Amino acid sequence: MGGTTYNSEFKIDYVNIPFNMNWHFGKTKKWNLNFGIIQSFRTNNSMAQNILGATIKNTQTAINLGLGYRIKINNTIGILLDYQFLSGMNNVDKDEIYSIKNKGGNINLGTIIKI
């Protein structure tokens, strides 16, 4: 017989630094599929200590996959709408008592400037 599995949700805030590759597709190349690795750094301490007896590490590494669309405003400026999903690759429990891996998603709005 296997062990007991518990699923819980907690909010932990991170600053993410993505290292992505993009593949632009479609007739006008406005769509893009992006993927890569994200290095994350925890920014808050609330809920980060003593979650089910675990202490959460300050960093995590995750893989990500996203889909975006570029809206051209003129020859030098554009707007990018993007959805990113990430899945943590490492256990964020410092003591490794529990297996805690993060998952998440976000919607991004950005500006593209050709220089």
Structure description:
This protein has 115 residues and is an all-beta fold. The protein has one domain. The strands form two sheets. It has a five-stranded antiparallel beta sheet, with no helix packed on it.
Structure characteristics:
0% helix; 115 residues; mainly beta; five-stranded antiparallel sheet; single chain; two-stranded antiparallel ribbon; elongated
Q: Could you tell me how far the N terminus lies from the C terminus, measured between alpha carbons in angstroms?
A: 61 Å
H/E order of the elements? EEEEEEE
Strand count: 7
Largest sheet: 5 strands, antiparallel
By DSSP (H or I, 4+ residues per run), the number of helices equals 0
Low-confidence stretches: none
* Strand portion: over 45%
Sequence of strands across the biggest β-sheet: 1-2-5-6-7
The mean pLDDT is 85
The general outline is elongated
Structural class: mainly beta
Total individual domains: 1
Helix proportion range: under 10%
- Rounded to the nearest angstrom, the radius of gyration is 18 Å
